[in-house]
Write a structure and sequence with these properties.
mainly alpha
Length: about 80
């Protein structure tokens, strides 16, 4: 009767060496995924802060209305109805 063969863990699952194209493909996918996610984060931040810029601009616009509504050469404001 033949003796039973005892396998070691390394023999059961032989390590398959990875080739450089495999590594490059994995790195490419990781970089593209990271770039896509980072783009989403930046766009989300812009969407969150964007309305704040318009509010600040509008406040400055409203504070400056008296200087823009005066008739040229006069300090009195232009009447609402001519």
């Amino acid at each position: 009767m033949p003796e039973p063969v005892l396998w070691t863990e390394a023999q059961r699952r032989p390590r398959i060496p990875r080739s450089p194209p495999d590594i490059a493909g994995t790195a490419f996918i990781a970089v593209q995924t990271s770039r896509r996610l980072l783009t989403g984060v930046v766009r989300g931040a812009n969407a969150a802060y964007g309305p704040g810029y318009y509010v600040a601009d509008r406040a400055g616009f409203l504070m400056d209305t008296s200087a823009r509504t005066a008739a040229p050469g006069s300090s009195e404001p232009v009447p609402d109805t001519p």
